Fold each of these.
Amino acid sequence: MRWLNRTVLGIGLASLFSDLSHEMATTLMPAFLGTMGVAAAWLGLVEGVADGLSSFAKMASGYYTDRMQRRKPIAIAGYLTTALGTVAFGLATSAWQVLFARSFAWLGRGVRTPVRKALLAGAVTSASYGRAFGFERMMDTLGAIAGPASAFFLLSALHQQYAKLFALTLIPGLLAVAMIAFVVKEGQRKAVAHISLNERLRALPPRFRRFLIAVGIFGAGDFAHTLLILLATQKLAPDIGAAKAVAIAIGLYVLHNVFYAAFSMIVGWLADHFSKSNLLALGYSVAALMAFAIIILPINVWTLAMIFVVGGVYVAMEETLEDSLCAELVGEEHHGMAFGTLATVNGIGDFLSSMIVGALWTMMGTGVAFGYSAVLFVAGALLVARTAVRPVA
């Protein structure tokens, strides 16, 4: 079976268009909230609540998708919900309305995530998991490059009229829906017999559960990288002005996503030839280096550029390796449940990390906030390194 087939390509294109859509909105969200006079704690709250709601949707979707003969309709509904929630940013006039729109968009993201991953894993052999998931992450990140870049140019062209820019996100959002509906081909599968959620969780292998513990500890410190945009904006604004600081912060986020995209395919190839658990431990260690750099180094354009680059590299390693390792540890018939559980653990971590880091930043400064993340990153790296997984032959 060819690993780069119609379904892998269709899922990759859907990820590209969807990420282009919501990254346009995400990139501008810190500045948009800034026009409402809110602080880092509010941004952390928006990201945390949205990720927390998404995590419950991922678990439910993962549980039910294994019991269905056709998974694709759930993916279509999820992508459509994300598109509508993202365009709703343009209707917001207060921070709580941004919170509602983001949460609605991320509810759709939660529904579609385990389904998309299960469709992807079912379209290739186990020997190609790394490349398939690396390709999907690369395409997703190409959208994450195009999104901030589009936001950067459109923000100036539209004279900072946020509502119009958010409205434009609907175009790539609907293209993502079309890719899933008309390009992705779902093969025949036998639905898993109905058992309780608790029984399904107990059926997951012990090695997978150990892996989830490491993911959860790391995730509790893995804050949303919109906080890096806010960091750059706040640190640069006193010297160069708010408008230039926002522009540079967006440019740095594009740089972050360039490295994210580039390393996704590299890491995917490595994952098909070396120990996924050892590579993931290395990725978690790179995240710790980024957090320590924020604490120790003087913050200027050059150090920020390094921080954003390292951030992009570790996210590529984290996401590609977590997904391909998950697919390897669990049988295909339980992929939906496994991906849903993994996504839920990550979502709970995101909920905690973004809120805690945002609150610590507001109350005690960046040193304490990112020091908290650094400690959990190191702990996650040590734990995942001990996960006994045989490398793929």
Amino acid sequence: MIGRIEKNRVVAGNNAIEEFYKKGFHGRPKNNKLELTLIEAAYLLYRKKLTISESGKELTFRDFFKKAATIESAFELKYIVYKDLKERGYYVQPSAVDFRVYPRGSNPGSGPAKILVYVQSERVPLKVKELLQCLKTAENMRKQLVLTVVDEESDITYYEVKSSKLRGGMEKPHPKLTADATFLEDRIVVWNQAASDTLFNNGFYGKPLDQERLQLSLVEGGYLLSEGVLKVHSMESDEILGIDDFVEKASSIEKDFSLKFAAYSDLRSLGFVPKTGFKFGTHFRVYREVKSLEKLPHSEFLIHAIPNNYEFSLPVMSRAIRLSNSVHKKMIFAVEKAEQINYIEIGRKKM
């Protein structure tokens, strides 16, 4: 079977429709010919089912591969992923998000594709805006988005990406009280014993400084201030801080404070109990519900807050996901956009 390069496609004759499209669902029939993407053509050339010519000259696999790489961005990465999926027994076709993949035992003639595959190099930062756009496309098409990362040795890691509709089990985000507290160097201290006990035992806020007093993190203090539960005094002047002054002061101490504060407040409003995720290298570990501190449940999520213009370093993302898997938690990223928080879960996927 012979094909020829035409712009960014390889075009084969009518007999290729029967051989490649009807039998293997490669390419797309058009004007009584078969149009193949460069990826599809390279795979068929590798399988020695197709020869490819340009200007009357037959191309070797090497020549075609080099030519295709000058025409299509990230051609070699996409070819590596396409070949891997084909050899795993999947039917794969081009899509708006690199590839659409049909379940094993299914094909384009028997049912819809279930997966959209988005290909990335480990070396290239991944823009959150692009990932969210791909996710939106997949969700609009009612398909699963799989982020596929090709490392420097051409090994492939598959990640499922999905929106998380979170709902916690805490009925009251905070106790009904008003207590005095002081903004010290980088944390908040509640002085009253009764208030300290109530906050700690009814919502798992803070950590006891001693039997009478409670220390709170900056995000906990800011949230309780914003909800009218605390009156926070300045350490220097004893002046009562408003929420704007509090946020400004906290942001001078912790550069990610505004992001963390927005995510923390949203998680509390959704009925969750967020606590520091420092030991896991993330902003928060999150409990769906805490009924008893004596029988503290397993935290289900690790959550890291990021802005909408964030760019993932894929090796860093990989470490975060591997760690979350190792401690039996889900890795969720809280993306802030226009004062709203969107939660996206990213986890390893077996193909």
Amino acid sequence: MKKLLTFTLIAAAAFAAEGYKVLTKYKIGGTGGWDYVAVDQVNRRIYASHQTTVEVLDADSGKVLGQIAQLHGVHGIAVAPDLNKGFITNGQSASATVFDLKTMAKVGEPATGQNPDAVCYEPKTQRVFTFNGNSKDATAINAKTNEIAGTVKLNGRPEFCVVDGAGKLYNNLEDTSEIVEIDAAKLEVTRRSSLAPCDSPSGLAIDVKNKKLFSVCSNKLMAVTDIATMKVIATPAIGNGPDAAGFDPGTGLAFSSNGDGTLTIVKLVNGKYEAVDTVTTVARARTMAVDEKLHRVYLLAAEFGPAPDTKDGKKGRPPVLPDSFHVLVVGK
């Protein structure tokens, strides 16, 4: 009986809530939708996409510092702190806006493939990669000169990207439910693998130290891939309508932000990846970024009005209420 009680207590401790909750929100305001959010871990800034602008906030205080405006359908943001540059994908103009991290001034706009979405900076080669949904490829940009370095054909519709810091990038292919590995120097796909039973993967995160990838999937599971073998080794359950994934190397926790108004937390428990906590957020807060210093998660959110009726009798997309756009802060 004592052994059983000890085992029960250990199991309960392992699966206890992680203590994460909504702490506050950083108000931005304005109207319109959003997509990605990114954290500059070095310069301590949050970059939030906001339709035709990128809102810039102080990561430690939440204060709005300014914005990068007159953009064209913003999707992703990536930073290259070693070069003092940031990169924003413009889905409507097939381009990437380059900006100065200190002044927020625009300093270039190289062309990309069609409908660029995710963007990642690869520090070893000092190249930026935009992942282009409609042309199903990736555009490589020399981050020093802003010149195009080449194109990588993906044979699938790309979603989120991550880098390993050693010259490789990884990307989810939404329409084929695969993951690809890209050599940043050679500009070629070196490996590709099925994410089955994952359907329509979107968000992607990486544990560089333990060489694991975390893909969130539309069928409410997270596919954990071992980079060495490119095999799916776990599929913990997550919430409905996921979009982004995150990983905090300081805590070992992986996250899935879900459109149903939840944040799923996954961690390694006794050698197995398990969903260990669910944080209630707000509906449609499905993109996020992890702050590795404060061990917080930033989600983009807003308040919505009633859904309008459409001609076919169905409900349309509810409108964003004016002045309600904000960053939702989750932490301990």
Amino acid sequence: MLMWDETLFRDPDVFEIDYIPEQFNHRESQMRELAFMVRPGMKGGRPLNTILKGLPGTGKTTTVRKIFSDIEDTTSKMIPVYVNCQIDNTKFAVLSQVYKKITGHNPSAAGNSFKRVFESVAQLISEDEKVIIVALDDANYLVYENELNKLLYILLRSHETYPKTRIGVITIISDMDVDLTTVIDARVSSVFCPTDIYFPPYQEEEVRSILSERVLQGLYPGVLSDALLDIVIGHTLASGDLRVGIDLLKRATLNAEREAERCITGKNISEAYQISKYLHLQFCLKSLKKEEADILRLIATLSETDEQLTMGSLFEALHAKNPIGYTRFYEIIKKLDAIRLVNLAFKEGRGRTRLINLRYEPDKVLSYLK
């Protein structure tokens, strides 16, 4: 039996979602290409703009964080700014993160407009001759909110108003249906001119290598058998998201410790997977605004009794509780579809009736929304 003061973790930080491994394998080519794109900023020039595209859990964020860490260790001339656009998905929120990175504090909320905050940022980097590289993680959320063009226009054309400003942008896209070539308008594309860097899904041997390395670093020898690691790898490949496997390892180990086991059992993994498989759902729900969450809650409630929920019936049910314009309603439904919380499909027959299907069990959605 495991004693109360003993643990199965050699290093629990290894299983945190934001952990950056010292040796980041299987993304060497993407790392080299991104390093080449930001290199001009190390010498005081303007970094080249890039688009990192790939499914969730394919190493895009870790690649950027690794590069940014190297920049901060190497030079003070270039300031890397990482922005999570699931949380900060307006141009003011993004610029506030840039301002905070430069000054160490948020801009004053009282009477500060976007223009005023940007003027402060431009003045600071001009006076100190700093270069800014901004990573917009999950920039597809800026697309959903119709904010991306406005933000890129201000950032990338800043030198026209403030000649000494040099700003580069890394856009990270996790929604494979988002095509920035059709989203970016002409006035932005002329200064954006990005290079695409693709992050393919990890193959089975790559997943095995990464998870095996995490187990080796994070757990004591003998805690997880090879047979059970194979099960974790299988769940990870089925989900298509490496984060599911990492979270599964963490939860299974905690389950084993709770039961005072000296090694992880199949039961520990099975119980942990019942939570880890909803990791994508949890991430997405955190990004929803109240209005969007309310509509998803209504979809889940109606889906418990109606397997053929249509756009029309949903709009009627919503309008009875909360009068909302159909254009805004349709935008929210498209966003929920884009982030893979619902699936839109046309009903066969006369007309073009659209069905709305939840991608998760209604009770799970309602539970996590609480």
